[in-house]
Amino acid sequence: MLKTFLSLSTAVAGGLLLLASSNTHSRAAPVDLSSLTCEQASNRIKTANGDATLVQTGQRTYTDIYRARFYCPYGSTGRLQSIRTADNAKCVIGYSCFPDSLD
């Protein structure tokens, strides 16, 4: 009985470790793209290969940005996201994901 419990505990711990390692942006600091040009900021998002980039959108606000709307998790819809960059007050850099409406 103890041997079964220990192997089950090891499997659960391994699964939790796998989940923690797959969510890399949660440990990354938000990136401030405001000092870049619009093209540089947009390219930064495009090079993320479908992974979310945690972007600073204000002094104390952040959001995940994806390079395409189809990278949004199931049950959400991607909407264009713009930020202020060095050369453009409303630079479109990618997509933020919002939950689908229940209506």
What is the averaged pLDDT score? 80
Characterize the biggest β-sheet: 2 strands, antiparallel
Helix proportion range: 25-40%
Give the strand order, joined by hyphens, for the main sheet. Answer: 1-2
Tally of extended strands? 4
Shape: globular
Low-confidence stretches: 4-25
Could you explain how this protein is built, in words?
With 103 residues, this protein is of the alpha+beta class. It has helices at residues 2-22, 38-46; strands spanning 53-56, 62-65, 76-83, 91-99. The strands form 2 sheets. It has a two-stranded antiparallel ribbon. Strands 3-4 form a two-stranded antiparallel ribbon. A hairpin with a 5-residue loop joins strand 1 and strand 2 (62-65). The longest helix has 21 residues, at 2-22. The chain is globular, with a radius of gyration of 18 Å. The relative contact order is 0.17. The model is unreliable at 4-25 (pLDDT under 50).
Topology:
Elements lengths: L1 H21 L15 H9 L6 E4 L5 E4 L10 E8 L7 E9 L4
Antiparallel strand pairs: 1-2, 3-4
TL;DR?
By secondary structure, the protein is of the alpha+beta class. Helices cover 29% and strands 24% of the residues. The protein is globular and about 40 Å long.
